[in-house]
Amino acid sequence: MKRLHNFNAGPAVLPVPVLERIREEMLCLPEAGMSVLEISHRSKTFESILTEAEHRLRRLLGVPDTHHILFLQGGASLQFSMLPLNFLPKSGVADYILTGSWSEKAADEARKVGTVKIAATTREENYGRIPQPHELQLDPQAAYVHFTSNNTIFGTQWQTEPETGNVPLVCDASSDFLSRPLDVSRYALIYAGAQKNAGPAGVTIVIIRDDWLSRIADGLPTMLDYRTHVTHRSLYNTPPVFAIYVVGLVLEYLEAQGGLAAVAAANAEKAGKLYAAIDSGGFYRGTAERNSRSLMNVCFRLPSPGLEAVFLKEASANGFEGLPGHRSVGGVRASLYNALPMASVAALVDFMRDFARCHG
Ligand SMILES: *Cc1c(COP(=O)(O)O)cnc(C)c1O
To answer: What pLDDT score does 281 carry?
Structure first.
């Protein structure tokens, strides 16, 4: 069996050593006498899996003691609703910065709860860039500012957080979480579905500042109230045991790579190589403005939709998986998450050069 070059946008490639470890431990976890799929979520074994995962994440990302780490279900999409249900008062306002389909969806859910102001949007430019700082029209009275750090579908990424003064900052970091260091102390809340860059589908990581919890109004359904999960340390009900176990292994792997600074450097090298191939020769065209380019999701076009179809067909026949752009935008998208090896990028670049030579 041969593994393909996996450019999927999510669920996505995982580190091979992590997959090998899962295989090794699948029948019997050390000390447990059974598979991770069979243990109780109240067992000592799972207790230590959960605690380890939390501690590793705290170390790796430098999560300060002021912030809680939660492992929830419902995907990033449930966070679109939980966030306003907990923190947007009926009479309040929340600022949303729109940089793509996911931030639009987040804003749509918040509108069901309270008033949403669009602090900036690049929709008119087909979301080809991140807004400049001077374009942000922030309301100093807003309950929070929400932004999406990496736009999985449009291939753009914030280089640094927007400056929001005293207004709490909230980020959907689903598709670049753990791809680079982050100053967690600047955020009131960060959430990320694990299946892009942190693990398998089934768990969503939420990091929330403790002092923000006091703003939550009573009366929410128990499972939708962040305080439930803080109080019960993500063990109010049965958590996604297997997904948390795998996230723990990914975190261990990232630590062994030298931490997030080393991971970020490797990611910059991979993306740099692919963007250089796109920019040379005039055959390929990147869709994002250069200073907004994502290191995680690289989106580009060919001279015609017909050539794109041929490109994607031949790429697939050559072992490149997951390259079609999102169904809403078309084109080509190569997702270069942490676990994608440089060898896959190098192989893609070679394939692109040969393709351009044949069809240019
Ligand atoms: C994939 C993605 C989502 C949706 O995640 P689900 O876990 O499927 O709900 C939300 N935001 C961003 C930025 C994403 O990339």
So the answer is: 86
Whether the bond between 64 and the residue before it is cis, its omega within 30 degrees of 0, is no
Q: Where are the alpha helices (DSSP H) in 101-239?
A: 101-111, 226-231
Mean model confidence pLDDT for the chain: 97
**Reported pTM:** 0.98
Two structure tokens written together for 243: 């997904």
pLDDT at 308: 97
Sheet holding 297-301, edge to edge: 285-286, 297-301, 332-335
Whether 295 is in the pocket of ligand 1, judged by its Cβ within 6 Å, is no
* Residue 189 near residue 164 (C-beta atoms within 8 A): no
User: From atom 13 of ligand 1, which residue's Cα is the shortest distance away?
Assistant: 174
Exactly one of 95, 158, 176, 196 is catalytic; which is it?
196
- Asked if residue 217 has pLDDT above 90, the reply is no
Q: Is the CB of 101 under 6 A from ligand 1?
A: no
Q: CA–CA distance from 26 to each of 16, 19, 23, 29, 248 (Å)?
A: 15, 10, 5, 7, 15
Q: Is the CB of 196 under 6 A from ligand 1?
A: yes
For the segment 145-187, what is each residue's pLDDT rounded down to a tens digit?
999 999 999 999 999 999 999 999 999 999 999 999 999 999 9
Which residues, listed in sequence order, are joined to residue 297 by a DSSP beta bridge? Answer: 335
Domains in the chain and their CATH numbers?
16-256 (3.40.640.10), 259-359 (3.90.1150.10)
Residue the block writes with tokens 């431990």: 25
Taking the CB of residue 262, how many other CB atoms lie within 10 A of it? 13
Predicted local confidence at residue 99, as pLDDT: 98
Distance CA 250, CA 271 (A): 21
11/261 Cα distance (integer angstroms): 24
283 lines ligand 1 (CB under 6 A): no
Distance 105 CA to ligand 1 centre (A): 10
* pLDDT higher than 90, residue 226: yes
Residue 43's SS3 state is coil
The pLDDT value given to residue 1: 79
Name which residue sits closest to atom 8 of ligand 1, judged by CA.
75
